[in-house]
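Hey, quick one: can you model this chain's 3D structure?
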Amino acid sequence: MDNQFVKFVVSATLFLFGMVSILLLTVSIHEIREPPEYTLRTSYGIVLDAGSSHIALYIYRWPADKLNGTGVVTQHSECHVKGGGISSYAGQQGAAGHSLEACLKKAKRDIPPDRHHCTPVYLGATAGMRLLK
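Sure thing. Here's the predicted structure for all 133 residues.
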């Protein structure tokens, strides 16, 4: 009698294992992935520090895997603009923008292309901005 019980348990276990295997083979992978808003991704932000004596571009990044897109922010890279501060471009239409070109190209390389469209840019400037129109 014990021998028959062991055969029954082994048969039942193999049957259950087979059913679970077939079930797992029929479930497509996209059904078990997490929704995109919860997947791990990194967000970036650019801060332009337009001071009276220099201009710098800082890139920050953070893991935005939480529902509200927040995480611990770290500085990813920085670029210092050649030339003077923002007020040194007074009276030179477009010169301040042209001075940023090298740093903006660096930012395009440092930030993955799929994150460009959602990367905010912030400008922090001193009183020297009042000299520009």
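One thing worth noting: Helices lie at 2-26, 95-99, 101-110.
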